[in-house]
Design goal:
The protein is of the alpha/beta class. Helices cover 53% and strands 16% of the residues. The protein folds into three domains: 2-148, Rossmann fold; 159-272, Hect, E3 ligase catalytic domain fold; 286-338 and 440-505, no CATH class. The protein has helices at residues 12-19, 21-35, 51-66, 78-81, 85-96, 117-150, 178-191, 198-208, 222-229, 255-270, 323-336, 341-389, 394-437, 439-445, 448-458, 477-480; strands at 2-9, 38-46, 71-75, 100-104, 109-111, 162-166, 172-176, 237-240, 243-246, 286-288, 295-300, 304-309, 321-322, 459-465, 468-473, 502-505. It is elongated and about 110 Å long.
Length: 506
């Protein structure tokens, strides 16, 4: 008689209870030899209950269905074979067709087409018990996971920018990935400017050298950039089954920066600044230099856009001006302030040297603060253990944990101050330098909403004086455009470059 062996172990507990795979296989082979069965196939696997188990089970069923003649299936007990009614129905279908006879060694009965009613009843009852056991395992597992989440523990693979690790007690935890966290922070800082799309940020991240952990050193995709930008984990909150819970790990950014990026992301998705119905570049940005009234825009012949004073205070002598003329003045100004690549790199090198000097001092302080943070977390974990043992009341536990978490918040605030001082300053200044170096190119290639963001970012106090556009350059761009070395790249340098004043472009 031909036979098939099925051996399965799904949990560590089962291995400890003598249900290990080698033990199962050995006993099943001995039983087959004793009965004179010829074992032609063995299905052996150690996996948790889930999709893979179902695939392996289907593989076994298909093998039995396709072979000619009947076969004996050897199994330790019912719960090794099945823990749900669906699998039991498949087994019964093959049994009733005479294709399958099942021998349960530990349970001590044989299930076949000719089985008596009491045997079939025993089979049905054991299937129900196995299913109940599985349900209990799932319920206990869910309860454990819920407790972990409520305690601020992440129960999955660490997001990009973090790594899964072990604490001093050997328990699973999550730490910042020093080689990638800086790129995550930089992504948020630069995206918060509102000047870059997610596609552009993907290109920038790959240009910085940002890669995935797995597959090893693979480039970051646009989908990943989108997931990072909308993931609250980076400021200290984790999303589990649609609900938000504070986590206990060191944040990479603060909530304010996240909220800024989220507003920009949602604004882009809604296309709220597209102005497709009223495509006016300067709408709401300019006032009349004569009377101070707002400047409105309108279209003539469905083609030409004109700007004119609303004259709410009466006639002021202001004339209509083509939008195209003012846009050209902006472009002309941008073309004047392009920083040559060699000058830009020199400034960046000097900046890096300065920041690296400060980092040497800051890193020691950060290491000390991180050590304190971990020690407090260990105290919180120990307090939970004591609470579970029943040594302290819930009220005592809550008071103690609250006090410790407040201490952690203070440390997190100090850590953020140090990291922002090093990282964000470097990122922001580099962003400003890159932006300043390619203003003309960026303005020419940008869509309308991006052009408007550029105007609001760089200029204030825009006024229409006849056919000339007057404006004030915002900080810190005024500094970049008035640096003493700017004569190297600023063809028409200001006669008084250090004075922040209203400019006119002609």
């Amino acid at each position: 008689m031909k036979a098939v062996i099925l051996a399965r172990v799904s949990t560590k507990e089962q291995e400890e209870q003598g249900q290990s795979l080698p033990s199962q296989v050995r006993k099943l082979r001995e039983y087959a030899q004793h009965k004179g069965f010829d074992v032609e196939k063995e299905f052996v696997f150690a996996e948790s209950a889930g999709p893979k188990i179902r695939l392996r089970f289907e593989e076994m069923l298909n093998y039995i269905r396709k072979r000619k003649g009947n076969v004996v299936l050897l199994c330790q007990n019912v719960d090794r074979l099945t823990r749900n009614f669906r699998d039991a129905v498949d087994i019964d279908e093959l049994r009733l067709r005479g294709k399958l006879e099942v021998h349960f060694l530990a349970d001590g009965f044989i299930l076949s087409k000719e089985s008596a009613g009491n045997v079939v009843f025993q089979w049905d009852m054991r299937v129900m018990l196995a299913k109940q056991y599985l349900s209990t395992l799932v319920e206990n597992g869910n309860r454990t996971l819920r407790n972990k989440v409520e305690n601020g523990e992440w129960i999955a693979r660490a997001p990009l920018g973090y790594i899964n690790s072990k604490d001093n007690d050997g328990r699973s935890t999550i730490e910042r990935d020093k080689s990638r966290a800086m790129f995550i922070r930089r992504l948020f800082v630069e995206y918060s400017s509102g000047l870059y799309s997610l596609s552009e940020m993907q290109i920038k991240m790959n240009g910085w050298g940002m890669t995935n952990k797995t597959p090893k050193r693979s480039p970051v995709s646009k989908k990943q950039v989108h997931e990072i930008i909308r993931n609250p984990f980076y400021f200290g909150v984790m999303r589990v089954n649609g609900e938000l819970y504070p986590h206990k790990y060191e944040p990479i950014i603060d909530k304010e920066l996240f909220d800024t990026c989220e507003a920009i992301r949602l604004g882009r998705n809604r296309n709220s600044t597209n102005y497709s119905s009223k495509p006016f570049l300067f709408r709401g940005l300019i006032h009349c230099a004569y009377c101070g009234c707002a400047i409105s825009s309108d279209i003539k012949k469905n083609k030409y856009i004109y700007l004119r004073c609303t004259k709410h205070k009466g006639e002021c002598g202001a004339k209509r001006v083509r939008e195209e003329l003012l846009a050209e003045q902006i472009k002309k100004y941008f073309r004047k302030i392009k920083i040559p690549a060699e000058v830009l790199e020199t400034i960046k090198d000097d900046l890096k040297t300065s920041i690296d000097a400060k980092k040497e001092y800051h890193e020691q302080a950060i290491d000390h603060l991180q050590s304190e943070y971990k020690q407090i977390q260990q105290k919180i974990d120990r307090a939970l253990d004591v609470r579970l043992e029943g040594s302290i009341t819930k009220e005592e536990y809550d008071r103690k944990v609250m006090s410790l978490k407040l201490d952690q918040q203070d440390l997190s605030s100090k850590l953020s101050q140090y990291t922002r001082a090093d990282d964000e300053y470097h990122i922001t200044v580099n962003l400003l330098l890159d932006l300043t170096s390619r203003l003309s190119e960026l303005f020419e290639s940008s869509k309308l909403d991006q052009k408007r963001r550029l105007l609001k970012l760089l200029f204030s106090n825009l006024k229409l004086d006849g056919e000339k556009l007057l404006f004030t350059v915002n900080k810190p761009f005024d500094l970049l455009m008035s640096m003493p070395s700017s004569a190297v790249w600023h063809p028409q340098g200001d006669s008084n470059p250090c004075r922040r004043r209203e400019r006119a472009v002609s």
